[in-house]
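Pipeline run #58 for the internal structure catalog. This entry was flagged by the ingest filter as a single-chain record with no existing model, so it goes straight to prediction. Upstream metadata was stripped on purpose; only the residue string is passed forward. Reviewer on rotation: M.T. Logging verbosity set to normal.
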Amino acid sequence: MTALVYRRSRLRWSGVYALIGVVLFGQVSPALAVASPQHRHHHRTHAARGTGAPLYHAELLMDADSGRILYAQNEKLEWPPASMAKMMLLEVAEDQIKLGRVSYSDPVRISARAAATAGSHLGLHEGDVYPLGELMKAALIRSANDAAVAVAEKIAGSVEACVRLMNLKAQALGMDDTYYGTVNGLPPRPDHDVDHTTAVDLAVLARAIIRTTGLLQWSSMEEAPFDGGRVMLRNTNHLIGHLDGCDGLKTGFTFKAGFNLTATAKRGDMRLISVVLGAPSNPQRFIQSSRLLDWGFDNFAKVHLVNRGQALPVHVQVESGPLIQPVAENDVALVLSKAQMADVKLEYSVPSMVQGPLTSGESLGQVIVRDGSDVVTRVDAVCPVAVGAAPDSPSSQENR
């Protein structure tokens, strides 16, 4: 009976999403129509309702590999993260696991504080014991506040100590406009959120989670078993299973924050991150997030410009030695606007002659990637082999 009710509910929500999608997709935001790498940093154009009020308070689209912002609107506006605070909680938990201080299988005894946590929760009881990994999974997929408190107490000893770890991690990631006062984003009272962040900081955090943890294995699940299958966790991120390539990350809602979503999707070899803050309804945060991600995949492409070890089209004469051809030290792959790929040029800042000897891998200059007049990135041009290294003399060997 429960499954039948759930399926009917999902069908009903799908109909609502489809209706809103027709309305919103039929009126494409001017910001999305003009956004490009050259115009990405200070867009303030809003997708507007009939009243002229902004439909979303902040939005952002980022290339997950490079961290390059492809589109942004009010990206530095301070806003409550709500339950997206759990993203940092789980990032810190992953750090503690990597340090060997805790493990996914460690038992966690539910405290009175955790059991009494309100808002979105599992209904955990004081004295119950669950593996740490199961509670982390519940905090991410189901956005369970009681599970989040239990995780915080296990990895740091107390909620307060965990909050300190979260703020230290935010500083380490360069999230300069973020502050955590809670581990789960739950306001101390309905109209007063203590946590604050920005769209760009949330994207930075999402990028760190993608690059350094395995949390997407959980956030990609539309539903997952908890407590040996006695409870099914249904993902609060309704893009999972419905938007091509979407495998994370986290929703957030409070009365003050409105409806928020940090999402990520991968198609082919390109992964994008979207952030939507302050949507007026639950369906609209998913509609706008899907619009941002689809727009990014439609208008940008990942271009492999240089491969690691690739011989570069320049030569360097080693004084009193051979003519050598430098190679690229690392790969250069960028997500670029399809309309502006012709503007991307490679510039080789390499001298025509150098003095020896040279060691293998020694930098001889740089390959500079320009988008028009802007420098997008650089990679070293290095010597492919050792050149002119004199052998040790017998006397020098004796004096070692």
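catalog note: The chain has two domains: 2-299, 307-382.
catalog note: The first strand starts at residue 58 and ends at 63.
status: ready for reviewer M.T.
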